[in-house]
Automatic annotation (TrEMBL):
Pfam families: Dimer_Tnp_hAT (PF05699), hAT-like_RNase-H (PF14372), zf-BED (PF02892). Homodimer. It comes from the Eukaryota. One of its GO terms (cellular component) is nucleus. InterPro entries: hAT-like_transposase_RNase-H, HATC_C_dom, RNaseH-like_sf, Znf_BED, ZnF_BED_domain_contain, Znf_C2H2_sf. This is BED-type domain-containing protein. Residues 1-52 form the BED-type domain. It is found in: Nucleus. Coiled coil: none annotated.
């Protein structure tokens, strides 16, 4: 019966068995038997269950790199082709009605006349079926993953539908220490968008994937509704399941905070320039005002033959000054770009950048320019409002970066707090120690639970005695607690006593903690902390994609269809992360097109041999 699934072939004079489902080649030497072939079919073949009729074969041409060609048997599956059609529509945001287009139908028929063209309703049904299947797989992956999950969320109103949507994205590090970002929901939110409505949608999402007990933090932008939503949501969590009983559950989007701070500074500059321009316009309006202004001897030291240039000169000087100020503000833009990364951890990069900004604001407050001082005061007031949230959990993330250790926190806090630096450093250290105790106790409870479940379903005698309320005196219990704390403290102290790693552009912090086995408790904490994003850009980027999905031509899509298209596109594109494709438009949408006829002019056309990395942060390549 095995040979119903294999074809006997000869390669280099040796008998081989080629799987008719996945084309895998295995040995077919008679003395080896067929057990390995049976195991392949039953356990390892990835395409056996695609319901392909192995007796229905077509001839295909297998072209080799040396230019030779060979005619071979091929298999056709209507189901596989329908799935690939759905993938194409999802990835490239093609309209569902593409299956009704006569040009598309003729093209498909020319490729394979055996493929039966489906209707748009059948295509939608295939997409919804795929969505439910992939959603179930993602749920199992999140449940089986041992690390905590960070959540980012944001809301958006589709102008073409005038409907509100809420994007919920999860961030976690998998068992192979790869950072994952998955859209969990792109849910329609009925009006009004109150704190209770948003909280319920978010809670339903967490319960839908059964991850409410694994949440590490929820990152939202600086909106009063979001703050109120977290106030409603926080009591609904099991406090014991959260990190430090929910102390870091609510985190604000750092990129959004920095944008608000910069905007406050630019508003002051704009107001200052506007006042000067209004002043110039007033005095230069009439010859009489010009004469009055000259009598004030304001420009007594400026030699200028044209009196009106006396008003133009300070304006030009002020614009030059504004450009210098904008140069200072570039550090905010650079920092925001770093925080907005999605393919690498950002929480460990946050602390140093924000401390640099705080020190820069302090130096600008001492500027000789009143305009700069006014600008900085406005920015600094808002910065201080969020500073206490900034230097807590994210200072711990910086310590868990071996390039920083505690020395980095001590260095910046000494410059920022002066005499009070010691208290702030101790505060951060205590937070880290509290996390260590919490994780170690959680591990101890987990081991105790597993010990209770022996083969016979009975607890071992030692477990009964140690966990019995009547067994053991207070001193024996105190010794156990004391020993556990000493072990944890020595682990952390040993990590902090080692020298910080040198700065390296190619340093991979995830790989460091993946192979670092000396600090098992710190390793678990790092896996959870480094997954926390510093911004909500992953959720916000869904809206740029949603704007294309819910285009004017697709504004009548049902909310369930929109959610399926949005989530599936995110999940499918994740499969291509890290792969180098031969064409920059490989994952582009139907709305992204360009004329590249002139390949030699250097005018931006892409050469046919150009390879593009999907992990690139080039926003011009793929806006997702």
């Amino acid at each position: 019966m095995v040979w119903e699934h294999f074809q006997k072939i000869t390669i280099n004079g040796m008998p081989k068995a080629k799987c008719l489902h996945c084309d895998h080649i295995l040995s077919a030497i008679t003395k080896n038997g067929t057990s390995h072939l049976k195991d392949h079919i039953n356990l390892r073949c990835t395409r056996k269950n695609s319901k392909v009729d192995i007796r229905q074969k077509l001839l295909s041409v297998n072209r080799k790199s040396d230019g030779s060609a060979r005619v071979e048997n091929d298999n056709f599956s209507q189901e596989v082709s329908r799935r690939e059609l759905a993938n194409m529509v999802i990835m490239h945001e093609s309209p569902l009605s593409i299956v009704d287009h006569i040009g598309f139908r003729r093209f498909v028929t020319s490729l394979n006349a055996h493929f039966k063209i489906i209707s748009r309703n059948t295509l939608r049904a295939d997409i919804m079926k795929m969505f439910m299947s992939e959603k179930s797989s993602l749920k199992k992956a999140l449940e089986s993953n041992g690390s905590r999950i960070a959540i980012t969320t944001d809301t958006w109103t589709a102008s073409n539908q005038r409907k509100g949507y809420m994007a919920v994205t999860c961030h976690y590090i998998d068992d192979f220490w790869v950072l994952r970002n998955k859209i969990l929901r792109f849910a329609y939110v009925p009006c009004p968008h109150t704190k209770d409505t948003l909280a319920q949608v978010l809670l339903d999402t967490l319960n839908m994937y059964n991850i409410a007990e694994k949440v590490s933090s929820i990152v939202v932008d600086n909106c009063t509704t979001n703050d109120a939503m977290l106030d409603v949501l926080s009591p609904r969590f099991n406090e014991q399941s959260l990190m430090l009983k929910g102390k870091f559950l609510h985190l604000r989007c750092s990129a959004h905070i920095l944008n608000l701070i910069v905007q406050d500074g630019l508003d002051v500059i704009g107001d200052g320039i506007k006042r000067i321009r209004d002043c110039v316009s007033f005095w230069a309006a009439t010859p009489k005002r010009v004469e009055m202004f000259e009598d004030k001897d304001v420009f007594s030291n400026i030699k200028c033959q044209n009196p009106r240039l006396k008003f133009i000169l300070p304006t030009e000087m002020d614009w030059e000054f504004a450009e210098k100020v904008c140069e200072k503000l570039k550090m905010f833009h650079k920092t925001t770009e770093i925080f907005s990364g999605r393919k690498y951890p950002t929480s460990n990069l946050f602390f140093r950048q924000v401390c640099e900004i705080k020190l820069a604001l302090r130096s600008w407050l001492l500027s000789d320019s009143q305009l700069i001082r006014d600008m900085t005061k406005n920015m600094n007031d808002k910065f201080e409002k969020y500073w206490s949230n900034i230097n807590g959990i994210l200072a711990i993330a910086a310590i868990l970066d071996p390039r920083n250790k505690l020395e980095c926190v001590e260095f910046y806090f000494n410059d920022i707090y002066y005499d009070k630096a010691g208290d702030e450093i101790d505060r951060v250290k205590n937070l880290l120690y509290d996390l260590l105790y919490e994780y170690q106790e959680k591990e101890a409870r987990s081991m105790a639970t597993s010990n209770l479940n022996n083969v016979n379903g009975k607890r071992p005698i030692s477990s009964i005695n140690s966990n019995d309320d009547d067994g053991g005196d207070k001193w024996s219990k105190a010794k156990k607690i004391k020993t556990r704390k000493v072990n944890v403290r020595s682990e952390l102290d040993h990590y902090l006593e080692e020298d910080a790693y040198p700065e390296s552009e190619g340093f991979d912090i995830l790989n460091f903690w993946h192979i670092e086995l000396k600090y098992p408790t710190l390793q678990k904490i790092a896996k959870d902390i480094l997954a926390i994003p510093a911004s909500t850009v992953a959720s916000e980027s869904a809206f740029s994609m949603g704007g294309r999905v819910i285009s004017p031509h697709r504004s009548r899509l049902h909310a369930n269809t929109v959610e399926a298209l949005m989530c599936l596109q995110n999940w499918i594109q994740g499969e291509y992360s890290g792969l180098a494709l031969e064409n920059a438009q490989a994952c582009a949408t139907i709305l992204e097109d360009e004329d590249s006829l002139d390949m030699s002019s250097g005018g931006g056309g892409l050469s046919g041999s150009e390879v593009v990395d999907l992990d690139s942060d080039d926003d011009d390549f793929m806006d997702i």
